[in-house]
Structure formats: C-alpha cells, structure tokens
Amino acid sequence: MNIKSLLIGSAAALMAVSGAQAADAIVAAEPEPLEYVRVCDAFGTGFFYIPGTETCLKIGGYLRFQTDFGRDQFGASDWQSWTRARITFDAKSDTELGTLTSFIAVHGEAGRGGLGFDIDPDTGTGTPFGVGSGTTNDVYLDEAYIELGGFRVGTFLNWWDNDLIGETEIASNVTRFTSVRYVYDGGTFRAGLSVDEIPDYYDYLAGVGNVHNGFGVSGMVAATLGGVNFELLGAYDDTTEEGAVRAWLSAEVGPGTLEIMGLYASGYNAYYAAAEWSVAADYSFKATEKLTITPGAQYFGDYLLVDGNDAWRVGLTVDYAIVDNLALKATVNYTDPDNTDDFVSGFLRLQRNF
Question: 181 forms bridges with which residues in the sheet?
C-alpha cells in the first residue's frame, strides 16, 4: 500500500464516522421568544404595559417618618413619632368610552395613637371628629376606585381633603368616603357632584352617640385662567342635617403663590367642623432651588363650634429637597383661642417618594 492509497482510505474512514455521528446528533429546540416589558407613554411617565395586555400600570408611593407635637394631643404625651409606607397601583387603558382607570393605595402605619382629636394623616392637624387611644400598627386600604368617562366609584378622598400649600390652616375633617361621583373637566372649567356614605360615628360635640349610617352630597366648581385658580365647594351631611361651604383662590404673585380661603359650617358635619366660619391665607415662595418657605394665618369664628370662642392661628412651613425624591418638611403653628389656653403644635417629616 503506497502513501496515496493510505491517505484516500483514511479520508473515507473519517467521512464514514462523521456521517454516523451526524445521523445520531440531537437538535435543540428553538427557545420561546421573550416578551420584554414595554414603556407606556400614553398616560405620563412611569407607566408600562402589563405583558400580554394593552393595560398600562404605574407603581409608586412613599415612605414617611414623622414626629408630631402639640400640648395634650397625644394622651399623656405632648409628642409622638410614627412611620407610614404607602404603595399605589394605577392601571389605565383606552376604551371607546374614554380612559378606564383602576387605582389602589395601601397604607401601612406604625406608632400613631392616643389622639385627643382625629389627626389629618397628611398635615398632622387635629380636628374634633372622634377620639383614639393606644398605638397603632395597621395595614389598610386607603383608596380603591374605578373610573371611566368622568364617573368614579369606590373609596377615595373627597375634594375637601385638598388644603392650602402650607400646613397652618384647618380646612376639612378627614374626608375619606365610599362614594359615587361625576366630574366634568373642560380644561379651564371643571364641575363635579359626589354622593358620599357617612359611616356611623359618635358626635362628641353634639353629644349624640352611635349615629346611624347616612349620606352626604358634595359639589365642586373650579376654574383656571392664566395663573389664577378658583374652587368652590359645598356639602350637606344627612346624619347631622348640617352643611358647609368653602371658597379657595390662588394666584401667582411676585416670586410665589398667594392663596386665600373662606369657610362656613352651619353646624357639626362630616366635611368641616373646626369653626362656624373661618378665613385663611398663605404665601409660598421658593427661597432657593431646594428651599420653599410658606407663612400662613387663619382666623376662626366660634372655634370648635363653641359660641363666642373665636381663635386665631399663625404658622410657618418649610420644605427642603435634600436630594431627588427625598424631602424634609417642618411646620410650627401658634393657636390662641378665646376660651382656652394658647398652644403650639406642628410636625417634622422626612419622606422618600418613589
């Protein structure tokens, strides 16, 4: 056998072996294509498409640490610290009837309790709408509603919950109701009507116990023209057969925003009960890029709905942006009623938004 024959034989043998291995090879299946999360910019920043659907979802919230202070407002103590976590889920999709929205907000709180008044969870301001005791460590549903074409049903905060920029005035009770409402939004002009469930409670001012479930009716008209905003609210509480009215005007003045508010309550009701009538004002201006200062004042006629017990309050709120999404807020208020001792109250808050 010469060299040429040897090479040809070797090549043939290798080809035979290779052919056998090729016949026995296992072919891997094609991987399933992955569906990546897509950004949804139809409803603003932060939304993304839920995979496999045309529904857009936004997840947000904040973590807050706050210390409140005020004489005799916390049982045997003049101060109290507490923490809250808020998580929100906002789902939106386009339909032939408009944007379909479902919104859920979950709160978890630890450390609050022993209050002489119900404390507004955002301002720390006390209002005479029940008495709490002990400390809390609760997780609860703060808001949950469905909205379509201007109609909203569920549990959510009423228009009365919107306050001035500062933290000096008392402009409402804690007005979170289970409601059915409709809002017409024409851009510069808006109007709405809401039917609210008023749950049973104990009326400490009127001395009426275990008031049965009733209903409230609240309305809103608002307009925006240039840098001027106006809002008028009216409400009627069927459980006490009393009502309240509130007017609010804000305008860009100089380097800041001037706000003026007037309120009236015919008697004790679920929407507003801090006074028979009241006027309030504040002026918010940016001292620096990160620092905002808001002085404010309020006068109460028949404070806490006690005849002849007028009162006045002055305060200062400071907001400081430490870094993006982390802010410090501090407020201190001085209140001087006619029939009781004057007192100082306020809070210090650190909040991280996401």
Answer: 152, 194
* CB neighbours of residue 351 within 10 Å: 16
Q: Is the residue at 10 inside a domain?
A: no
Range of the domain at 69: 36-353
DSSP bridge partners of 334 = 314, 344
Check if the beta carbon of residue 213 is closer than 8 Å to that of residue 200.
yes
Q: What is the DSSP letter of 249?
A: E
Q: Provide the domain count of the chain.
A: 1
| 125 contacts 119 by C-beta, under 8 angstroms | yes
CATH number for the domain that contains residue 202: 2.40.160.10
**Tokens matching residue 63:** 């973590």
Report whether pLDDT(322) > 80. Answer: yes
Task: Say what the pLDDT of residue 27 is.
Answer: 59
Q: Which residues in 160-207 belong to E strands, given as ranges?
A: 176-185, 189-198, 201-203
Token pair for 148: 């379509």
Which tokens hold the place of 338?
Answer: 């006619």
pLDDT at 211 over 70: no
Length of the chain in residues, anyone?
A: 354
- And the tokens for 22? 């090729």
Q: Which two tokens stand for residue 105?
A: 């907000």
Average pLDDT, the chain: 86
Q: What is the CA radius of gyration of the chain?
A: 30
Please give the Cα distance from 30 to 117 (Å, whole number). 66
